[in-house]
């Protein structure tokens, strides 16, 4: 039983890990995502939605960003920042607040994935 529990836990962790950035970049249907970058921090937004949201703040953030994740670092090797890092940079570790700041002030960088074929 203990082994089964451990297997389930690691299975869940693997699924959670797969929901992050790296599996995202392998999915060709997501190849048009925009990176919205604010300094070292960025979010992944759906194509064209950042501009629409900037003009109409009534659009729900869930319809703008691909996922409620903030990343730090380069696109090739992103990581999730700590709450302390977010506090220092944005005076908040609330992801909704941070995402709002990034979408408002950030620079939109279109991403075109090359799949090699």
Question: Major beta sheet, specifics?
Answer: 4 strands, antiparallel
Let me know the number of strands.
Answer: 4
**What fraction of residues sit in β-strands?**
5-15%
What is the end-to-end distance?
A: 45 Å
List the strand order in the largest sheet.
3-2-1-4
Report the principal-axis shape: globular
Helical residues, percent: 40-55%
Order of helices and strands: HHEEHEHHE
How large is the count of helical segments?
5
Quaternary organisation: single chain
Rg is 16 Å
Stretches with pLDDT under 50, minimum 5 residues: 1-29
What average pLDDT do the residues reach? 77
Q: Kindly name the structural category.
A: alpha+beta
How does this model look, in words?
The longest helix has 17 residues. The protein has five helices and four strands; from the N terminus they run ααββαβααβ. The relative contact order is 0.19. The protein is of the alpha+beta class and 117 residues long. The N terminus is likely disordered. It has a four-stranded antiparallel sheet, with helices on one face.
In brief:
The chain has five helices and four strands; from the N terminus they run ααββαβααβ. By secondary structure, the protein is an alpha+beta fold. A hairpin with a 2-residue loop joins β1 and β2.
